[in-house]
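Quick start: load a record and inspect it. Here is DUF2993 domain-containing protein:
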Amino acid sequence: MAGGYAYGERPRRRGRRLLVGLLVLVIVLAGLLVVADRVAAGFAERTIADRVRQEVAKQDASAQVQSVSVGGFPFLTQVLKGRYESISMRLADVNGAVQGKGVSLPRVDIDARNVDAPLDTLRSGSGDVTAGAVHGTGTISYDSVAKLINRPGVQLAAQNGKLGITAPVDLLGQKFTVRGTAKLAVQNGQVALKFDDLTADELPNIPLAQAALRNYASQISINIPLPQLPFQLAVKDVQPQPDGLAVTADARNVPLRSVSG
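Running the structure step on this input writes:
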């Protein structure tokens, strides 16, 4: 009886040991795949970041590439296929000031989708890296806009989805506080600010006073030259936000890195 029990247990113990061995093997293989995936991700991010920096340097845009990260999972299959779901980039100090005019974007976040970056291209450094679509966002500070308006005491802020202004002004020899909002539009690579809805506390409702107010509104209505953005990004929209004017830009079928000559 005891001998039969021991005989029956021996195959079960072997089976358990085999199962444990298989589980350990699976865990080891999974760990190796994770490591390989991380290595592939690091290789792709470093190499594509270098290509992006080269492309930014070649273009007229003045900017620093702060970071590049590859999205999607797993990375290893993306590297082998040469096609990436998304590549996110952060640019700093995108400069658009020309002879003291224009604004700088302290930070621009760029998201490139459906990126073709063949492995041979990344290895050799010769060939094209292209994105099916690129989306960029950045913010123009209100302080920089106020400097362009160049009138004493101008304060800008988001106001119920519009760009609001408050400023002291001399009209007809008297001091008033002007308030109102601006219409925003993107035109020929510039943001157009048009103040046509201004009021002034206690300003007399007489033609001369109202004409002076309209003249002031015309003086502070300006066009803001925007920085030239890399990767053919064209600004499509601008919206007032608590921290400044948020601009969005888009492009399609964009070379992130052109063929080397």
